[in-house]
Amino acid sequence: MRLHQRTDFAIRLLIYLGLAGSGPVSVGRVASSFAISEHHLAKVAQRLRDLGYVRLVRGRSGGLELLRDPEDIRMGELVRQLEQHILVECFEPATDQCRISSACSLKRLLERARSSFFAELDRSTLADLITPRRDLVRLLSIGATSS
Amino acid sequence: MRLHQRTDFAIRLLIYLGLAGSGPVSVGRVASSFAISEHHLAKVAQRLRDLGYVRLVRGRSGGLELLRDPEDIRMGELVRQLEQHILVECFEPATDQCRISSACSLKRLLERARSSFFAELDRSTLADLITPRRDLVRLLSIGATSS
Question: Are B15 and B51 in a shared domain?
Fold first, then answer.
């Protein structure tokens, strides 16, 4: 049971932006703070832009800005949008080759379990994930002068 | 969000054994009924044997037998045992390189969500998955003469 790396990276990017506050932040800076691939993070940023979580400010001091208040970003909603929701083969009707899909109740059972998973995530918002703020800001060197 | 293929195959194998009732069933027969890899299914069968769900009867008419009543096999317990539980990088302390793991609450949030997922699965047993029996038996050609 695994979430996509892009979901993990998307959450990290939003945590960074939530901590950084106002003013655009470059993808390169976030990638560097987390020591992760800037290329992958840029793709994640595009997806978050398409979903309306961030906007891209162009120009020399441009970068990403959070478009929604951290209190308004429910984690279940976010993860639901980022994940493709394929738990097992029968979740993809176009390619499903399981012989018993037409009569099997496993899919419905897994759908209920997945709903419980997201419902629990929806009890938290990005605001919950950017605390303890001071520790997180320190670990990510946010606000430190670039070297 | 995806379960391992081996978890999917393990559930299919147990469904087959639950439908077949008494008497050992060969891995080859189950693989053939589902049109899946016998090699992969044999590995899954070993894991289920190690976990105490099935036993291997040796000999010419040997095969796998279910060791527990379908009513006693809770799906949450089964999936919990089969999945490695790695939702994101910080679930593997040995290889985790995330800079904020020491202060971040994402892992605890995902752990709670995962518990909700398994709790929902635990509301069903293998007995629920082997109904409607007649349809499932027909789709898998259980009891039909081998061609």
Answer: yes
- Residues spanned by the domain of A17: 1-73+125-147
Q: Do B59 and B5 have their domain in common? A: yes
Number of domains into which chain B is organized: 2
A119 and B116 within 8 Å at the Cβ level: the answer is yes
Contact (CB<8Å) B121/A113: yes
For A56-72, the DSSP string reads: EEPSTT-EEEE-S-GGG
**A129 contacts B109 by C-beta, under 8 angstroms:** yes
Residues A10 and A51 in one domain: yes
| A·B CB contacts under 8 A | 144
Out of A98, A114, A132, name the one closest to residue B117 (CB): A114
Residues of B in contact with A124 (CB under 8 A): 109
Tell me A145's DSSP state.
P
Q: What is the CATH number of the domain that holds B132?
A: 1.10.10.10
**pLDDT of chain A along its 147 residues, tens only?**
788 999 999 999 999 999 998 889 999 999 999 999 999 999 999 999 999 999 999 988 889 999 999 999 999 999 999 987 678 999 989 999 999 999 999 999 999 999 999 999 999 999 999 999 999 999 999 987 543
Q: Do A109 and B85 touch (CB under 8 A)?
A: no
Tokens for A52? 């309306």
Residue B78 sits at the vertex; the CA angle it makes with B33 and B13, to the nearest 5 degrees, is 10
Q: How far is A56 from chain B (nearest CA, A)?
A: 25
